[in-house]
Amino acid sequence: MEAFQAYVIREETDGLKGRIEELTLDQLPEGDVLVKVHYSGVNFKDGLASTPEGKVVPEYPIIPGIDLAGEVVESGHPDYNVGDLVVCTGYGLGTHHDGGFSRYARLSGDWLVPLPEGLSLREAMGIGTAGFTAALSVDRLLHSGVTPGMGPVLVTGATGGVGSFAVDMLSKAGFSVTASTRKLGEQSDWLKSLGASEVIAREDTMASGPLAKQRWAGAVDPVGGAQLAGLLKSIRYGGAVALSGLTGGTSFEGTVYPFILRGVQLLGIDSVFCPMDWRKRVWSKLSAEWKPERALQDGIKECSLQELPGVLQSILQGKAVGRTIVRLE
After folding, report:
1. Comparing C-alpha atoms, which of 40, 12, 23, 31 is closest to residue 304?
2. Distance between CA atoms of 317 and 315, rounded to whole angstroms?
3. Does the predicted TM-score (pTM) go above 0.90?
């Protein structure tokens, strides 16, 4: 039986340990489709999976990697045949089910999206969970009534995966984008090349008092935490915040005033279990009018399985810029 490499995290007496192991297909979990993985993305949740404080994995060992793109090599699912190119994000991949940091992955065909025309496997994982989450955020803002004519939109954590893709997509959609980042001096030019009209420090999004000056028509916030309260106070009447992350923390203190005096909406973005019809529609946009070509060209780095531990450490330390994908070809 053919052996292949995978990055496995195991719980040992002295803590969690991640290493490259040689596996065989019979060691993979159940599923009706076997995929030969070409690329997988490195996400903040993968970093959390590698540390006990992350609390995203209920049981070890686990192969992390919460997204993947590859080729079907075995299928018992009616919608997929050998040779089909597919993308998988969400559904507990990499946290509850062995994920994409492996040459092969066995999964449910119900989790798969056919690779959209207009995207390569590398581009699909360049976008990955981060870009998909950004696109869900933009889609929700538009459906909540936020339009370019209402004023500028803010993107927090703009140098990260979700943030950088959101800057690109929002500018494509005609918005004036303000990018917020802790890496103000280092990455301002890059964020402007992605489409940001203005780049500000994260501290500039904080606000005191129950309400603040109305600054932004909407916001994409993959950071969360304490700054969310200040952000909500600064959203213009009828605007909305699309919240998708927790890198800034899991809680915030706020008031009801933005909601009852300005009609502000707080939109929760879940990329894990969003309905398949919405999932496919958004991926279709990502391959066409929302394709983040600038972010794909300038913000994607590749690494090998051997280099993966350093990348996971970097993402946990908040040092990641853009998106890194693992090459498994």
Report:
1. 40
2. 5
3. yes
